[in-house]
Amino acid sequence: MAVEPRVLEAAGLRRSGRQSRLREWWEQEHVFGYGLIVPAIVLLVTLVAFPFGMAIYFSLSDYWVGSPGAFVGLRNYRDILSNETFRQTVQNSFVFTGIALSLKVVLGVWLAMLLSRNLPFKRVIRGIVLLPFVIPTALSTLAWLWMFDSLYSVVNWTAIRMHLISAPGPNWLGQSTYAMTAVIAVNVWRGLPFFAITVLAGLMAVPKEFHEAAEVDGASSWGRFWHVTLPLIKPVLGVVILFSTIFTFGDFNIVQVLTRGGPINTTHLFATLAYQVGLQGGNLGQGAAISLFIFPLLAMVVFFQLRYVRKE
Amino acid sequence: MATARSRGARIRSNVFAYANLAPYVFFVLFPFYFMVVTSFKSNAELYNLKSIPFWIQSGVIMDHYALLFQKTDFVTWMKNSLLVAVVATTVSVVISILAGYSLARLRFRGAAAFGTAIFVTYLIPTTLLFLPLSQVVVWLGLADSIYALMVIYPTFLVPFCTWLLMGYFRTIPREVEECALVDGATRMQTLSKIVLPMAIPGVICAVLFSFTLCWNEFTYALTFISQSANKTAVVGVTSDLIRGDIYFWGSLMAGALLASIPIVIVYVLFLDYYVSGLTAGAVKG
């Protein structure tokens, strides 16, 4: 009976000893550090790295929805490379990305220059400019779908009234060149704010003295832009271009809502074709192989990003 | 004299800037304006080639909104979107605070490599992984349910938020933490009571961006879910109001407008956080 409290005490002591040892262990910088990133790492390994491996496996097998297939080597790749639709998609992707990106760079820098002035209502204007980037893309693209309607297009209506084009006007989403123009226009509409606002942030970081010095030296406004401003915003512009390259190249929303890849596959991008073949057609193997064609470009972007941009 | 001239020059240069910005502002706003006009216009006027598309001549009507609420699951879609966005955002921001603090502040072997790995996953577009993930979702028993989205959305939210928060944590002086540790606070207490309150602007930014990205997400929501009652607002509006060749334009625009409103409200209230988050995400990269 006299033993009891002592036993409790001893047990209690031992427990608190173990607890304090555990606490000491946990308080070490590296243990705590690893502990905090475990949830993020588990998530990214199971739901990003593992699915990426699956995508590679799918692309090497004849996996259909509902029937796990066998390993077929590079057959899916051989099949899609000889497929006319796929070749068209490769061409579309480069045309789409090339033109949309160039427009976004040029217009984005121009817009950022305008926004960097100390204008009245500066905040309101910046707020409006960023709007297309914030609103759900699929929904704003619906408005464009309606604006490009084959019969009731407001774009054509206006152009006809202004005598820019003659009566029925182009069928925007039904003719290949026009459809590509439309898809690019919407992509620029939605992506330009990102360029403008980020380049603007880069511009604001350029000290005013640089411009004043150049002005004193008698540089023209173009010369000032080319020799002073542009070199200074180059790092920011580089990052934005790399980001935008990968997200323009991998775009899905705009094309899916506007044209679904049509007419006759002339606006298909890798993502929309992969969706059509892999999910709607059920051929997961081929779909995965198609979507993996985004990867080489992604790898290049990551390489440049890590090699050149993060260094400075 | 000199000031008058420079003032005149400034006004002229402002007029020049406005003249250049005006067409762009029109280009930005017109689709939204057109959504509003279309959603309140009668079908008779919408589909009359002789009418002027820019405004409403034959009276404002609410029929398109009525159809949206009575004949579709619009209210359910909005609820689903909200639920998914709130859960995925909460989970992601908590995971990202932990990871971001660890990678920005604590010294351990491999920290830089983990940081790079997170940055690389941040660059992966959703369109690269949606096919295998559609199978993962089936294996997890979450096919055709909004839980699938709650589980999958953190895969693109966590890299973004971690990256964003790392930038904010780095700006907090180390001395503050060291003082707390010397005073006997545990590391977890230091994080939650000292560091986190100082990083609140970053956390708000992460929450805003996560919420917006969830609400706007289209690829996964479209591929994982087919039953109307389980759709999110963005997918529901884009898919259920187009039946074959029939487009319910009035209701489509009404739905697009209403489903955008939560984002617009959040955006207007927190504009500065959006701008700083956007530039931090790219510039600090």
What's this, in brief?
Chain A is 75% helix and 0% strand. Chain A is mainly alpha-helical. Chain B has 2 domains: 2-61, no CATH class; 65-283, MetI-like (MetI-like fold).
Describe the overall structure.
The complex is a heterodimer of chains A (312) and B (285). With 312 residues, chain A is mostly helical. Chain A has 2 domains: 43 residues, no CATH class; 225 residues, MetI-like fold, CATH 1.10.3720. Helix content of chain A is 75%, strand content 0%. Chain A has 14 helices and no strands. In chain A, helix 2 crosses helix 13, helix 4 runs parallel beside helix 8 and helix 12 runs antiparallel to helix 13. The longest helix of chain A has 32 residues. The radius of gyration of chain A is 28 Å and the shape is flat. Chain B is an all-alpha fold. Chain B has 2 domains: 60 residues, no CATH class; 219 residues, Orthogonal Bundle (MetI-like fold). Chain B contains 15 helices and 2 strands. A two-stranded antiparallel sheet of chain B has the order 1-2. In chain B, helix 4 crosses helix 8, helix 4 packs antiparallel against helix 11 and helix 8 packs antiparallel against helix 11. Chain B starts with a helix and ends with a helix. The relative contact order of chain B is 0.13. The model of chain B has no long low-confidence stretch (mean pLDDT 90). At the A-B interface, helix 1, helix 2, helix 4, helix 5 and helix 6 of A face helix 1, helix 4, helix 5, helix 6 and helix 8 of B.
Q: CATH homologous superfamily of the largest domain in chain B, by name?
A: MetI-like
CATH architecture identity of the largest domain in chain B: Orthogonal Bundle
Largest interface: A-B, 97 and 95 residues
CATH class descriptor of the largest domain in chain A: Mainly Alpha
What is the number of E strands of chain B? 2
Number of domains of chain B: 2
Q: CATH homologous superfamily name of the largest domain in chain A?
A: MetI-like
Strand content of chain B: under 5%
Distance between the termini of chain A: 73 Å
Shape of chain A: flat
Low-pLDDT stretches of chain A: 1-12
Give the tally of β-strands of chain A. 0
Sheet with the most strands of chain B? 2 strands, antiparallel
For the largest beta-sheet of chain A, the strand count, sense and barrel status come to:
none
> Order of helices and strands of chain A, N to C?
HHHHHHHHHHHHHH
The SS-based structural class of chain B is: mainly alpha
CATH topology of the largest domain in chain B: MetI-like fold
Mean of all residue-level pLDDT scores of chain A: 87
How do the SSEs of chain B run, as a string of H and E?
Answer: HHHHHHHHHHHHHEEHH
What is the general shape of chain B?
A: globular
Structural class of chain A: mainly alpha
